[in-house]
Amino acid sequence: MKILLFMMLAIFITNCAPTITVAAPDKPIEINLNVKIDHNIKVKVDKELDSVMKENEDIF
What is the DSSP secondary-structure string of the chain? Predict the structure, then answer.
C-alpha cells in the first residue's frame, strides 16, 4: 500500500512540475526609427563687423 501511494505521489509531483521554454520568434524584430532632425543656426553680426565685411569681401 505504501509503495502504491509513493508511486502515485511521485507521478503527481512529476506531472505538476512547471516547464519553461525559450524559443526564438518566427519573425525578425523590427525597430522603426522615424527621426526628423531640424537645425536652425542663427548668427548675429555686429553692425561694425558687418560694415568691415562689406568693405573687404575678398577676405572670406
Answer: -HHHHHHHHHHHHHHT---------SSPP-----------------HHHHHHHHHTGGG-
Q: What are phi and psi of 42, to 5 degrees?
A: -115, 130
Q: What is the pTM of this model?
A: 0.26
For residue range 5-57, what is the model confidence (pLDDT) as tens digits? 877 777 777 766 677 788 888 888 888 888 888 887 777 767 777 787 788 77
Tell me which amino acid residue 44 is: K
H or E stretch at 5: helix 2-15
Per the listing, cell 519553461 goes with: 20
